[in-house]
Write the structure tokens for this entry.
Amino acid sequence: MNPIITKADFKDLKEILQLQYLAYQSEAELFGSKDIPPLKQTLDEVIEEYRKGIILKMTDESDRIIGSVRAYESCGTVYIGKLMIHPDYRKNGYGSMLMSEIENAFPNKRYELFTSTRSTDNIRLYEKLGYRIFTEKAVNDELIFVFMEK
């Protein structure tokens, strides 16, 4: 399959949020709780992010959204978030493809993202793409974010 990556349209946001709820189940399992921000995000919040920056979508041959990532720029730094791939399509290099495209949308900038310390697969992917941890922040006893930059 050769997925296609394009900018999401307003009409795609509901499907992207549904994918987010599905894709972040594995993240929730790392904590044994569904009480994580990506699973509580509302459509209005996604719309706000859409208006603030860029949301990319990855579609399959049926035009179904199977991946997404979003980013916005502030003061010379591009903040990347919500990289997600449908569970059936993981481990095919699609996350790397989306990361490359979102960086290309903001050329020659500093990129920053965060993930949890328990998300070792995510950290490994980002390190492979040239990101390095520059700080950690404890949200509570269970949740520690690592902030990475490139």
Residues 4-149 form a domain with the Aminopeptidase fold (CATH 3.40.630.30). The first strand starts at residue 4 and ends at 7.
